[in-house]
Design a protein that fits this description.
There is one protein chain. With 414 residues, the chain is of the alpha/beta class. Helix content is 39%, strand content 16%. It has an eight-stranded mixed sheet with strand order 3-4-2-1-5-6-7-8, sandwiched between helices. Helix 1 packs across helix 14, helix 2 packs across helix 3 and helix 7 packs across helix 12. It starts with a strand and ends with a helix.
Length: 414
Amino acid sequence: MTGLCVHLVSEHASPLATVGGADAGGQNVHVAALATGLARLGCKVTVFTRADDPDTPIRVPFGPGVVVEHVVAGPRAPIAKDELWPHMREMAHHLRVRWRVDPPDVVHAHFWMSGWAASRALAGVLDAPPLAQTFHALGVVKRRHQGAADTSPPARNGIERQLLREVDLVVATCSDEVAELLALGAADSRVRVVPCGVDTSAFRPDGPHAPPRRGGHRVVAVSRLVARKGIDDVIAALPRLPGTELLVAGGPPRTELTQDPEATRLRALADELAVGDRVRLLGSVTRADVPALLRSADVVACVPWYEPFGIVPLEAMACGVPVVGSAVGGLLDTVADRRTGLLVPPHDPEAVAVAIRRLLDNPSLRVRMGQEAVARVRQEFTWSLVARSTLDAYLALVAEDRRHTDADSRAVPA
């Protein structure tokens, strides 16, 4: 038990949000699970996130030892993530005032805008707590893959480089990200890899399977409905996979899918390829229902163009289901190729089809991979391990900060 006071800053990704919306995904899950895990280790945790609903209380208990505090920065209404930048000065001001009154032992910012707000709030503050940063995604990587379709504010890349000079520690989520950070100028000594994790009490092989099968094989994808997630590549693989249905969970509620541009595009592609009757867009699915959905699959497909980490492949592995994933980002660390799944190049529907076909045609291979996947997750990727590793990083930061403070206090003026 540490008694450490930890403040997590996550400007757009609230642990209270329903996962699967346009800007609600892995970061929400990560922040929620990390906060809970740190509290179980004895930390007192506050998560600061932007207020996007006029009826939500400013402080909301999230669990034992965890409170979510809503910061009024801009209108108390939903705003797209890439349109939040003009409101970050308000967030920084709130944090500065808050930390003057009640400073934590350590601050951990999640995403670049949170990092900027936290860094500005702490700038010039005597005895400021150490600041850790997790980017969750890097602007240079997004621009590389999306080009002109990238809607990030123009300031993003410069601010990410600036944060690499200012923060005390960067907590990266995979080895691929470390290479990107070093290329941007990060000091190797100030980068530490702590992966994302899985709640193995919820994501496990035993339990219900839903929804019921209609017959044949089933592939499941759980993802936000954005082009970079590569769902269209899985749909394009279906003509080579007769008798196989694809269930896609994510996006707006099912009743609103007809208004979603990406859902419309995916449906049109499925119809064009004559597989529309085998593609089911489920819309948003509650976290409680995701394990049963994953367990219902023969294969879980996760083939994004790029991926800072990717929690869904781990969740599938924890349920004993092999993964066909892109050989990018965090999937290179988590999916053990040919042991817990198969890795394929991004943007390659034919490779996706070949990999899925190989698994569908070999039930014993699926079972063996599923068993090894469960063991791998439980040994390396539980949230309790993630929280412990993160807390170790915090404690090292706090100890280093105290050493510097003691050294300064002993210094004799010239």
